[in-house]
Amino acid sequence: MEGKLLEMFEVGPCEDDYQLGFLIGQRFCNQIRSRLAGDLILQNQLLPFARTPHAQPLLKALSETNQKKFPRYWAELLGTADGSGVPVLDIILVNFRKEILPFISKTTMNSNADTTDDCSDVLIVGDSMAVAAHNEDANVALVGHTYLIKGKLSNGLSFIAYTYAGELPSCAFGLNSQGLAFTLNSVPPVEDEIAPAGIGRNFVSRDLLEATSTADALAVRPSNVCLLYLMKFKISLII
């Protein structure tokens, strides 16, 4: 059976980051709403947890930390929520799911719990080519709820990012006009290493889309929350 091609949405340059997120949310509102409605981890674990008093300090700290570190991407997240017409809380929860799930009591977890083995990658890098193969083993709720974003920024940089509906581009893989490409796997810390209110991996990967080089990416992006594979190559025919 012939597979369905992923839709690519070209967006930007925009007047601000909120508008960028709003246009993405507006364009993919049906996919975002469908993903959120069918995501059992969100519906059965994250949302019930978010309504408890125990969750409030964690959600507040996560939001404040990431908004302070990446105010542009936080505005993009809010724009995505408004553009798609879904509650901001739902968008926050799916973007921080990896950072929140360790704090949910094990007694409330069920068979729909998020897996730590989301994706796998094979990379081949040589003098004449660079190939990244990324296998999507993530939550079944994401099937049919992904798309490609081709973002053009006001500073002239552009990127292409494989994106989960409702989430910041990209917590999977992407590339930009600076010749930087990356693929991302989740590598959760062990229990005694978990600390609340860190930088979310979705914000790290969104920031990587604007890195100008591998040195830039490794120097100024937090590396303790995710495993990143970075490659530098010519992509003038793609962007």
From TrEMBL:
Family matches, as Pfam families: AAT (PF03417)
Membrane-spanning ranges: none
InterPro entries given in the database record: C45_proenzyme-like (IPR047794), Peptidase_C45 (IPR047801), Peptidase_C45_hydrolase (IPR005079)
Stretches assigned to the Peptidase C45 hydrolase domain: 128-219
Protein name: Peptidase C45 hydrolase domain-containing protein
Organism from which the protein derives: Gossypium raimondii (Peruvian cotton)
